[in-house]
Amino acid sequence: MTNHSALFFEQRFGEEMVNRLIEPLFSGIYAGDLKQMSLRTTYPAMEQLLDTHGSLLKGLRKQQKQFVTTGTKKNDRCIPNFKWWNDTIN
């Protein structure tokens, strides 16, 4: 398993995505250096998705499918908001 969060995200999404999106987000939330943060400590659910589904995106898609299909109406196609994603990942 990857030792720090920056490497985890770089391997999956590329250095540019980390530098422009993920690093500023994590730095704002945790007020620290992404290379000093452990993925297991900051977002253990991401590591669990990877272990369970073999892919972070596959795991998120499965969770999104569950979210969409458990709407209040049969044809309810809700788009998950930030709170839902944050609650899911945490």
Automatic annotation (TrEMBL):
GO terms, molecular function: oxygen-dependent protoporphyrinogen oxidase activity
UniProtKB keywords: Oxidoreductase
EC number(s) given by UniProt: 1.3.3.4
InterPro entries, per database record: Amino_oxidase
Amine oxidase domain ranges (all copies): 5-59
Protein name: Protoporphyrinogen oxidase
Organism, scientific name: Brochothrix campestris FSL F6-1037
